[in-house]
Amino acid sequence: MKRRLSRKGLIVLAAAAVIALITLISVSAGGRGGIFTSAVNGVSMPLKRLSAAVASQIESIYGYMYKYDEVVKENEQLHMQLAALERERREYVEVSEENEHFRQLLQLASRHSDYQFENASVISWGASNYTSSFTVSKGSENSDVAVGDSVITESGVLIGVITEVRDKTSVAVTVIDTKFSAGCVIESSGDTAVASGDYALMRRGMLTLDFLASDTRFITGDSVVTSGRGGVFPKGLVIGYIEDVEPDPAGNGSKVTVSPAADLRNVMDVFLITDFETSE
Amino acid sequence: MSKGKIVWKVIQHALLLLIAYILQGMVLPYIPLRGMVPLILPVTAAAVAMFEGGFYGALFGLFAGMFCDCSFNAPTIMFTLTLTVIGLAAGWLGQTVVARGLVSYLVMCAAALVICSGVQSFSLLFFRGQSFGALALEGLLQTAYSLLFAIPAYFAARAVSRGVTPA
């Protein structure tokens, strides 16, 4: 047995020597790892890849087990950072919108240096189906607002008129409400009329023109602006645009439908003209 | 009825009134259906009045009317008076000639809503010369739409009337 083992050992040793010799010759001849090295590498490569993948998985499981709290904390921090950034972005958008409003208002104020403004926010809309009214954030205690003051957008579009002043808030009716009535001019022709609310049109978000001269000329899309006559409204505030002209069924000239220039239901920030120089 | 139960019932009615007011003045105006906002406070007043009687109905109607005027941006006159009268009448009818069921309540509500529409359109019709047809159509649509909200108001008022107590 001993002899057999030693013989087998000698055979293996001889084989190893042969391999070593071949490798030595191969290396010294071509400068490479040799045929056996390549063969071993070729066979072991998939195994190496497998072991690397397994190691990576084990490492990730290890990481999950031991670094979970860290990851959660980091995730929370990132969420907070994201929320803060989102808040900053919103504030930035709000500030730039406000800035834009004030920039436009400045342009309006430079054109009409006699206007005295109060800025306000629309805080609620009336729930009645029979009126079109809203409440603004300025009242007698925190501003000089008075009944009859015009409510406009920053670009000089007339939204409505103040009808009631309370301590900290005021109520205004919009230009489509049946209480609204204003002397106006059709800008392209210079013809005058009275812009007023009509109940049926109010439900469609429109108003009408009354007291039109029979020879009044219109084109759909013409601007309708306040005339300034009577001293109730300043001159030149845009009320809306002519939407439709059709013969009056009652035979009194034409029935003119005007679409308000402002998107009434989406108005948020408004300006109240508390004083101005009358044109008459 | 013990004092505690009375207080609890008043609290529940106050809560009901508050919910109706929030819906009427702060929620539904922002989600109108084809430009239409339903009347929640009048139907709630009618429901409470039918189950609780004339006096309580008038009292609830008074507060509901004040809130209604407030949500309509109107001085507290028109609906304050109208809903007090509706509360009183609905309470009296509920205790005398009308059965306290859903169908009779809906009929009573429809009448109340028509009265409300009439009150709302009165000045438009007689002082501002608006078209009767347009106002009548609006009144009918408002009544029909508001009746949908009368059903939950009925069950809420009935639950309070039957003495739902805190667990």
Mean pLDDT of chain A: 82
- Spans where pLDDT lies below 50 across 5 or more residues of chain B: none
What is the CATH topology classification name of chain B? Arp2/3 complex 21 kDa subunit ARPC3
Distance between the termini of chain A: 134 Å
Helical proportion of chain A?
25-40%
Q: What's the SSE pattern of chain B?
A: HHHHHH
Rg over alpha carbons of chain A: 42 Å
Count of DSSP E strands of chain A? 12
- How many domains of chain B? The number is 1
Task: Name the helix and strand elements of chain A from N-terminus to C-terminus, one letter apiece.
Answer: HHEEEEEEEHEEEEE
Q: Strand arrangement, largest sheet of chain A? A: 1-2-5-4-3-12
Per CATH, the superfamily of the domain at 116-275 in chain A is Rod shape-determining protein MreC, domain 2
What form of chain B results from the Cα inertia axes?
A: globular
Plain-language structure description:
The complex is a heterodimer of chains A (280) and B (167). Chain A has helices at residues 2-30, 35-111, 199-202; strands spanning 116-125, 133-136, 150-152, 158-165, 170-174, 181-186, 192-196, 207-210, 223-226, 238-247, 254-260, 269-275. With 280 residues, chain A is α+β, with helices and mostly antiparallel strands. Chain A has a domain at 116-275: Rod shape-determining protein MreC, domain 2 (Thrombin, subunit H), CATH 2.40.10. In chain A, the strands form 2 sheets. A 6-stranded antiparallel β-barrel of chain A has the order 1-2-5-4-3-12. A 6-stranded antiparallel barrel of chain A has the order 6-7-8-11-10-9. Chain A is elongated, with a radius of gyration of 42 Å. The termini of chain A are far apart. In chain A, 31% of the residues are buried. By secondary structure, chain B is mostly helical. Chain B has a single domain (3-161), classed as Orthogonal Bundle (Arp2/3 complex 21 kDa subunit ARPC3), CATH 1.10.1760. Chain B contains 6 helices and no strands. The radius of gyration of chain B is 16 Å and the shape is globular. Chains A and B meet through strand 2 of A and helix 1, helix 5 and helix 6 of B.
